[in-house]
UniProtKB/TrEMBL annotation, chains A, B:
<feature type="binding site">
    <location>
        <position position="219"/>
    </location>
    <ligand>
        <name>Mg(2+)</name>
    </ligand>
</feature>
<comment type="function">
    <text>Catalyzes the oxidation of 3-carboxy-2-hydroxy-4-methylpentanoate (3-isopropylmalate) to 3-carboxy-4-methyl-2-oxopentanoate. The product decarboxylates to 4-methyl-2 oxopentanoate.</text>
</comment>
<dbReference type="GO" id="GO:0003862">
    <property type="term" value="F:3-isopropylmalate dehydrogenase activity"/>
</dbReference>
<feature type="site" description="Important for catalysis">
    <location>
        <position position="186"/>
    </location>
</feature>
<keyword id="KW-0100">Branched-chain amino acid biosynthesis</keyword>
<keyword id="KW-0464">Manganese</keyword>
<dbReference type="InterPro" id="IPR019818">
    <property type="entry name" value="IsoCit/isopropylmalate_DH_CS"/>
</dbReference>
<keyword id="KW-0432">Leucine biosynthesis</keyword>
<keyword id="KW-0963">Cytoplasm</keyword>
<keyword id="KW-0560">Oxidoreductase</keyword>
<feature type="binding site">
    <location>
        <position position="104"/>
    </location>
    <ligand>
        <name>substrate</name>
    </ligand>
</feature>
<feature type="domain" description="Isopropylmalate dehydrogenase-like">
    <location>
        <begin position="6"/>
        <end position="340"/>
    </location>
</feature>
<keyword id="KW-0479">Metal-binding</keyword>
<feature type="site" description="Important for catalysis">
    <location>
        <position position="135"/>
    </location>
</feature>
<keyword id="KW-0460">Magnesium</keyword>
<feature type="binding site">
    <location>
        <position position="247"/>
    </location>
    <ligand>
        <name>Mg(2+)</name>
    </ligand>
</feature>
<dbReference type="InterPro" id="IPR024084">
    <property type="entry name" value="IsoPropMal-DH-like_dom"/>
</dbReference>
Amino acid sequence: MSRSINLAVIPGDGIGQEVVSQGLKVLNAVLPQDVKLETKEYDLGARRWHRTGETLPDAELDALKGHDAILLGAIGDPSVPSGVLERGLLLKLRFAFDHFINLRPSKLFPNTETPLAGRPDIDFVVVREGTEGPYTGNGGSLRTGTEHEVATEVSLNTAFGVERVVRDAFERAAARPRKKLTLVHKNNVLVYAGHLWKNTFDKVAAEYPQVTTDYLHVDAATIFFVTQPERFDVIVTDNLFGDILTDLAAAVSGGIGLAASGNINPTGAFPSMFEPVHGSAPDIAGQGKADPTATILSVALLLRHLGYEVEAVRIEDAVSADLAERDGTARTTDEIGDALAVRVAG
Amino acid sequence: MSRSINLAVIPGDGIGQEVVSQGLKVLNAVLPQDVKLETKEYDLGARRWHRTGETLPDAELDALKGHDAILLGAIGDPSVPSGVLERGLLLKLRFAFDHFINLRPSKLFPNTETPLAGRPDIDFVVVREGTEGPYTGNGGSLRTGTEHEVATEVSLNTAFGVERVVRDAFERAAARPRKKLTLVHKNNVLVYAGHLWKNTFDKVAAEYPQVTTDYLHVDAATIFFVTQPERFDVIVTDNLFGDILTDLAAAVSGGIGLAASGNINPTGAFPSMFEPVHGSAPDIAGQGKADPTATILSVALLLRHLGYEVEAVRIEDAVSADLAERDGTARTTDEIGDALAVRVAG
Ligand SMILES: CC(C)[C@H](C(=O)O)[C@@H](O)C(=O)O
Ligand SMILES: CC(C)[C@H](C(=O)O)[C@@H](O)C(=O)O
């Protein structure tokens, strides 16, 4: 059987190029001989926008569709007005390819930093909805720039959209040893959306009697993230709450340098996209200081998604061992990539 | 000069009654002899709703208007459907009395708990907008309960509403030693509301050259709350982001048992309302286990609002001294109230 991966690579801005190079290095090292890896790089991001004014032309969007998956570095630069690349490129990809599962695991590896005293045992995954909520770009502004301006943002939530992500989260919870799923929302204030989420959650829960369920308001959830993060196993939540909670989750479990993510379309209708949760960090770009681990862990999620479970685990074990054996000496982006490539190949 | 305070008291649900009693005890102890304190208790909350189906009848709303200020314990009970009391009572008061400043100070007192390693120096205040954003109840649901349901929540933001809270925050920042103000929003995704907030912030900033300003996306802000909370002085933000951030702030700075808040209408057109950030905690209600300190610190905010600055500081100093001299022995709600009443009188 001959196997192949046809990968699109979007290095993007800032440290994106550096971390993506290491991700590809480790991907090459971990793949079995018989798997043919083809990669095509797409020049999208701040430079492209400055050059041509384009964020994601249709031709490129079409071309991206033909790949098995996408590896993305980071998008965003202070020279571009806020929102232009986020909405025109990153979110456009997530929406165009219907990435309704935004998967963000958090694990506090040994010998890593956490601001929390006592190093709690953190090992949970946030299943963030990726195509609805306040992220749909459904808003507007009236009498813009005047003292009578009114600006709106509409959170859109559909039974279809909520049920598919809730089902996915139950499946993931059922497959984990602790089998626990927490819904996070704010249904005491956002009563319409909250009602839809909670009712859907309760309905699907009836099909998964083996999964223990729980509900938390988003404000209360942030408290538990810092006082009792070990209580979480799988969390399912809305697009915006998921955005906020996963940065906090990254902060308490080793820092944003280790947080991986997958923008997944489980139906396979479109390629899924894998990216570190961190941004483009322009302040340290080009200096070999960026930690590529989050990107390398995102490659593990990519492999798992494409069915290469053994290779995914090999990367995760390599990261775990690498972190455990660190002696505190600062390493360059390249050195970390090399060390992990050696481990996964070995 | 004879002075008086005509106070409305809404004990509410769960531990509300217990903590409010201690708040009143300390208020009585701290007030100078010449100040006449009148209090009137309002029976609102879960019991009332079960009895009569009412959350906040017009007659009561009218009567409340006549007071100088309101002291509220906690609202909410598991026996009442989520949202009924929150929207029908608590938020109704905040909106009816135009409490556009939701003031939430965070300070890590000595000898208190924090989940953060290294006990960072936390002393900031969140100025949360209180009358707009996703809290306006502007949403709906179509084909409710069917597989075609669509539920919306609209965040409403006006130049008027944003500017008045931003101005208030600049005033507060200018009056503090560090003179630093951070705007928190998500203007790379919520571009319409984000644009209004950021533009208003920049415009008002020009009038306060002595205030250092900063902008953070809400997701990034949660990271700094746990890795570098000492960087914050005053934060101004939207209703929902403020809700989320202030629970996290409470968690890192001594716990929700110490977090005070004021729902303030600085124009004086309506009475302002002071309440602990914590909820009704029905699991420990009636057991004398609740910590009344958050309510007592809310009484300090109430006094400051009414012009009793000396008395406000006396309560805050008493809390600080009380916490510093704690020896770890568990104390009842009453004992804590007694100890603080003695200190402020002394
Ligand atoms: C850059 C931004 C649009 C994005 C988001 O809000 O989803 C980022 O914060 C993330 O979490 O991937
Ligand atoms: C009870 C709830 C409506 C309220 C809010 O969301 O504002 C609470 O969480 C708070 O922070 O005071």
